[in-house]
UniProtKB/TrEMBL annotation, chains A, B:
Gene3D superfamilies: 3.30.1490.190, Winged helix-like DNA-binding domain superfamily/Winged helix DNA-binding domain. This is Fur family transcriptional regulator. Belongs to the Fur family. It holds the Pfam family FUR. It is found in: Cytoplasm. The keyword Lyase does not apply. It comes from Arthrobacter halodurans. SUPFAM superfamilies: Winged helix' DNA-binding domain (SSF46785). The keyword Iron applies. It comes from the Bacteria. PANTHER family: TRANSCRIPTIONAL REGULATOR FURA, ZINC UPTAKE REGULATION PROTEIN. InterPro entries: FUR, Fur_C, WH-like_DNA-bd_sf, WH_DNA-bd_sf. Keywords: Cytoplasm, DNA-binding, Iron, Metal-binding, Repressor, Transcription, Transcription regulation, Zinc.
Length: 153, 153
DNA sequence: TGTCCTATTTTGAACTATTCAAAAGAAGGA
DNA sequence: TCCTTCTTTTGAATAGTTCAAAATAGGACA
């Protein structure tokens, strides 16, 4: 099923902006709004930033996109919904990798005590330092998320 | 061991501002910088907002505080570090609860494939709707994180 | 195929959370 | 007590995101 159909199924109109945002995130998962704007503008040079935010919010609320917020980072978006995968972010360069769920198929959806909450999503965010950053070749592309010289405790 | 000692052990000077921030978060875990400022000012009416951010950043970098970022929320802080507990946030009212780790003692620290990253922290963020919000008494204290009328998919 | 209604996008502005930089002030070792 | 250095303050700037109203364009229906 393509994205036009998915949009219609969710009661949403099919617009070029929405399709372009979905295509951009298909192509570059874990993108910030900023990056999505840049990506979308390669096809639609005149989209407004506001529209991209609108689309990201609408589609996230409808479950067509997934959003997560690593510390020191704008919100990131991806099209992989419905599977229970997680994320590993490098605290030095900000790079994000998908991590398949280790414990089974939908493990983290069952907390020990849910405090009466009806849990819908479990976001697991691993934070560490990636190979490149540890080997000194830190922050090639992305700006460091934490100052490199932070003294160890 | 009290907080003065902990600060010294981490090579940090003991200041009233730092002690007050730690006391505020001891008292009200999961607070935003904003709330910490308000709380701290009950003792030290003249602390600057900037100082609170300084303290929060320094102590988080040194491992004396833990920070996490739910979507649609400023960063939240707590003094519970070193145990592997998680969080459940209500997507309607924003309320946060601690959730003990279900799978064992430090389960989530071992992703199936770490992509070469040296994992240091695993943050698990459950998102759902709390009892109060489901029973219609939505958003008593806190502003809704998502518009209440968002039509289901 | 054209019309109309409403959802969506755009425009323009505002706001919140957070950071930057330089100067003033205080912790704590000598 | 003094001096050095770490912290806090002051003042301003920035990034990320949202708000509101006007313009535009899907797509149901005639």
């Amino acid at each position: 099923m393509d994205y036009s159909d998915r949009l219609r199924d969710h009661g949403l109109r099919v617009t070029r902006q929405r399709l372009a945002v979905l295509a951009a995130l298909e192509d570059r998962p874990h993108s910030s709004a900023d990056i999505v704007v840049a990506e979308v503008r390669r096809d639609l040079p005149d989209v407004s930033i506001q529209s991209v935010y609108n689309v990201l919010n609408d589609l996230t609320a409808r479950g067509l996109l997934r959003r997560f917020s690593p510390p020191h980072s704008p919100a990131l978006y991806e099209t992989r919904v419905d599977d229970n995968h997680h994320h590993a972010v490098c605290t030095s360069c900000g790079r994000v990798e998908d991590v398949e769920c280790a414990v089974g198929h939908a493990p983290c959806l069952t907390p020990s005590d849910d405090h009466g909450m009806a849990i819908q999503i479990a976001d697991v965010l691993y934070q560490g330092v990636c190979e490149d950053c540890r080997s000194g070749a830190a922050g090639i592309a992305a700006a460091p998320v934490l100052p490199q010289g932070t003294p160890p405790k």
